[in-house]
Design a protein that fits this description.
Elements (H helix, E strand, L loop, with lengths): L4 H5 L5 H17 L3 H17 L3 H27 L4 H7 L1 H18 L3 H32 L3
Helix pairs in contact: 2-4, 2-7, 3-7, 4-6, 5-7, 6-7
């Protein structure tokens, strides 16, 4: 039986490093955005960081278990397939995986009582699927970094 993502990524000694790596991944993805939707993402990200320093890192930590839950079925399928590149595996299912992950952020945004956060999220949600899809190879690489060989 394959090791679950919860066992891999949420182990007490591993989880803080995964949170750090996820936060770095978000920073990198935002920094690399371009065009109109990229500018909207950068403005929203800067707004959140300006009004609530540390909020993005905090939310990464808070949402990590839910994100892992959303990735778990893909991880199980990947392990069963004997594949070697989880990022490629995720990218081939890009729209489906991105919508699964965005279901977590959608629920968080809907439950937020912070108008600034809700507004910032609303400005980027329309293009979020594309942005998440673009990040999937890095997400897969991050998972494999912690997966047992």
């Amino acid at each position: 039986m394959a090791v679950t993502l919860q066992q891999i990524l949420l182990a007490p000694d591993i989880r803080p490093r995964v949170v750090d790596d996820c936060h770095t991944l978000v920073d990198q993805e935002v920094a690399e955005k371009s065009g109109v939707s990229g500018t909207a993402v950068k403005v929203a990200y800067k707004t959140v960081n300006a009004f609530m320093p540390g909020h993005v890192r905090h939310m990464v930590a808070v949402m990590l278990p839910e994100m892992v839950d959303q990735l778990e079925p893909y991880w199980a399928e990947f392990c069963a397939s004997g594949g070697s590149g989880f990022g490629d595996f995720l990218a081939k299912r890009g729209e489906e995986v991105s919508q699964a992950l965005l279901s977590v952020t959608d629920a968080r945004a809907a439950a937020s009582g912070r108008a600034t956060i809700i507004k910032a999220y609303g400005t980027v949600r329309g293009s979020a699927g594309r942005h998440v899809e673009a990040a999937l190879p890095r997400v897969g690489d991050l998972v494999l970094k912690y997966a047992p060989s």
